[in-house]
Amino acid sequence: MVIQKQLGFTPHTLEYYTVALSHKSILSKKERESKSNERLEYLGDAVIETIVSDILYKRYREANEGELTNMRVKLVQRGTLNRVAEKMNLQKLVKSSALNKTHNFNVNGNALEALMGAIYLDKGFEFSYYYWEHHIMKDYLDMSVELNSDHDYKSKLIEWCQKRHLRIDYKVVEESKDDNHNIIFKTEVIINHKHGGFGTGYSKKESQQMASRIAYYKLTEDPEFQKELKTKKGQNTEEG
Questions:
Q1: Which is nearest to 209 in space by CA: 185, 235, 228, 175?
Q2: Fewest CB within 10 A of the end CB: N or C in the chain?
Q3: SS (H, E, C) 81-94
Q4: Would you state the torsion angle of the CA atoms of residues 203, 209, 215, 217, taken in this order, to the nearest 10 degrees?
Q5: Terminal CA-CA length for the chain
C-alpha cells in the first residue's frame, strides 16, 4: 500500500487518509462538502499547534510566553509546513489538478495539516504526538534551523523600510480565476512610491509574501535599486 509505505504505519481507517489527500480542485461542488480535505485541514491545524506548543513548553523551560509564541509561529507557519510536506514527498500522494499544484504553493502544506487531522481521528492524540515528534521532527523538520531562520519576507521588508523611514504599500492590481474558479490575487508592493515587485497567490496574504520576497531580494542584492530608493527619498524630502 503506497500510503502505508509513505507514512511508515498501517492506517486503521483508510478513508480518513483518502479524504486528507484529496484537494477540492478535483471534486465537484457537491463532493466538496464531504470529500475535500478542508475540514481535516482545520482539525489538523489545531492538532499540530497543540503538539508543537507542548514540545516547546517542555524543551524551552526558561522561555517566556512571548518567546514561546514566536517559536511556535515559526514552526507551524505555512512556509514551514510546505517545506516539511515537500520533504515527505506528499506531492506524490495529493490528488489535485495539475494547475493547482503549479500555482497554489500551499497545497502540500494544507495536505500535511489534513493528514495530521486524519491521524488524530484514526489513531488518537497520543499516536499523533508520537508521530510528529519521532517521525516528522526526526526526519523532516529541523527545529534549530527553522527557529533560527526567518521566511516571513513581508515582516522583514516592513522592518527594513521602517528603519530607513521609507513608505511601503501593498496594492491588489488584478484578480483572476483558475480553471476551477479559484480566485488568484496579483499584488504589487510599492516602496516609497517605487515599484518593488509583483506576487501572485490564492490569498491576498500569499500574494503579498511573494511580492515581498521579490522586493526583499532586490533591496539586499541590487545596489541600483537601493540607490534609486535613496534618490527618491531625497526628492520627496525636498518636495516636502
A1: 185
A2: C
A3: HHHHHHHCCHHHCC
A4: -140
A5: 69
Residue 126 burial class via C-beta count within 10 angstroms: exposed 0-12, middle 13-18, buried 19 and up: exposed
Q: What is the pTM of this model?
A: 0.63
Which residues are annotated as catalytic? Answer: 45, 113
Go through the chain and tell me how many residues it has: 240
**What tens digit of pLDDT does each residue of 47-100 get?**
999 999 999 999 888 888 988 988 898 899 888 999 999 999 888 888 765 444
Phi, psi dihedrals of residue 93, rounded to the nearest 5°:
-105, -25
